[in-house]
What we know:
This protein is α+β, with helices and mostly antiparallel strands. It has helices at residues 23-41, 44-73, 80-93, 108-115, 145-149, 170-177, 234-247, 265-273, 320-330, 437-446, 450-467, 479-492, 499-504, 506-531, 536-545, 551-561, and strands at residues 6-12, 101-103, 120-123, 126-131, 134-140, 156-160, 163-164, 184-190, 198-203, 205-208, 216-219, 222-226, 252-256, 281-286, 294-297, 309-313, 335-338, 346-352, 358-367, 388-392, 398-402, 409-411, 417-419, 428-429.
Amino acid sequence: xxxxxxxxxxxxxxxxxxxxxxxxxxxxxxxxxxxxxxxxxxxxxxxxxxxxxxxxxxxxxxxxxxxxxxxxxxxxxxxxxxxxxxxxxxxxxxxxxxxxxxxxxxxxxxxxxxxxxxxxxxxxxxxxxxxxxxxxxxxxxxxxxxxxxxxxxxxxxxxxxxxxxxxxxxxxxxxxxxxxxxxxxxxxxxxxxxxxxxxxxxxxxxxxxxxxxxxxxxxxxxxxxxxxxxxxxxxxxxxxxxxxxxxxxxxxxxxxxxxxxxxxxxxxxxxxxxxxxxxxxxxxxxxxxxxxxxxxxxxxxxxxxxxxxxxxxxxxxxxxxxxxxxxxxxxxxxxxxxxxxxxxxxxxxxxxxxxxxxxxxxxxxxxxxxxxxxxxxxxxxxxxxxxxxxxxxxxxxxxxxxxxxxxxxxxxxxxxxxxxxxxxxxxxxxxxxxxxxxxxxxxxxxxxxxxxxxxxxxxxxxxxxxxxxxxxxxxxxxxxxxxxxxxxxxxxxxxxxxxxxxxxxxxxxxxxxxxxxxxxxxxxxxxxxxxxxxxxxxxxxxxxxxxxxxxxxxxxxxxxxxxxxxxxxxxxxxxxxxxxx
Length: 581
């Protein structure tokens, strides 16, 4: 999963120790005083303490000596900076913590962009990815300079500022496209079907990275808000989305946190605050250092009191997503549906180091309002893990189903039974639609050419949209369309795939192609609307909200179904239910 952690927004400065003006006199009298006191008391306690302290300084000096000898006298030349980097990596590796890392100065801006630490940035508004050796436009962002200038999905970036972009990595191009708002950047674009390259000069602007790409009504009175990441504006975006839906007659809500890897801790607290009464506990952090032990409570009146809410989660819902799901579950404020979450219950603080480098260090663990830690160990040997069965969803995603012998139980603040252990266990476990065993085997063989398949499906989608200007939601690819795509895979992309495997995997292929076409034609909201009929978890959420007028009624309905259980699973598709044991 992506590395979007519960980040503290404070970047602590590097503090160098200052020498006291009296340090010289202390250096003479200090050892003398220690010696006298040690003789008087028997010395054992102070000797032990001094030995430990001295040992630390000796070890630091020892490291410096080894480093000096190696860099000065080793038989072959060595890179001193590389050795120091390896030593830092070794220190952090000893912590066995995937969320602690050393971020070099030159990658800091890229890290802030990817982690959601910045809600906006200066750029041209392009989502890009490397395809066939070229940086390719996946989609121009709404309202961005690139879209206004006429850049399209499928365009290849072949030059930036007159420099060839052949074989560039995505980050390399992104770093040049981003910059100070108001400055210009020149691009040369190659477009499928156009003989000559197209020059563009784009003026960088502040690009807002939306946490909520859209909000829509999915049934009478049932609103839907997908929350993709927790950045600096997430709380405000969710509030504004609720306000828009209220104007359309909102009577119940689905908050979709599936696939949300998290982000800023404060924004997780802020989103939970929208649904809880003023003063309600949301989160407690516990750490060793001063200031790491904190309680976070709601500070605003509840925005939508009495509104029935379902929170959708899955295995990729992590960190701040789990803060929201855990708080609303503990307060009996929302029915959590889907599959067990990732289990990231730690907090990272960013410390500024010399040279512009950054240390991202785990400094605390966080706990839900009833005291649950959701931290899960993800690096245990396979033989030590709880047994799992794995299937592939309709979109090719892995569907994991925990099957632990038992989970520790807790009581919610309203007296319901909820479960502890790693991750958030949903109140109502609903598996997504899954592929049958034969389909999974065929898709696994197709995965051998996954990169080429993705490139081919993207190119096919771009061409399909261009060839069908009157395309409407609800379209369906026919047999001829799929046969044409198969020939493209074999003839143009040289994919080694038997036609029988292609036909066995046709549900997966059709889902991928239609989703990509809808995305290129209508953006994320259109892609969602086109695919919603295949979303078992969403369908079940709409169904249960349609029968519940209050939050209490949601829990009564779930209890009546008998599905508030440890993750044993309900709601799998008919084709896949028998394949998950």
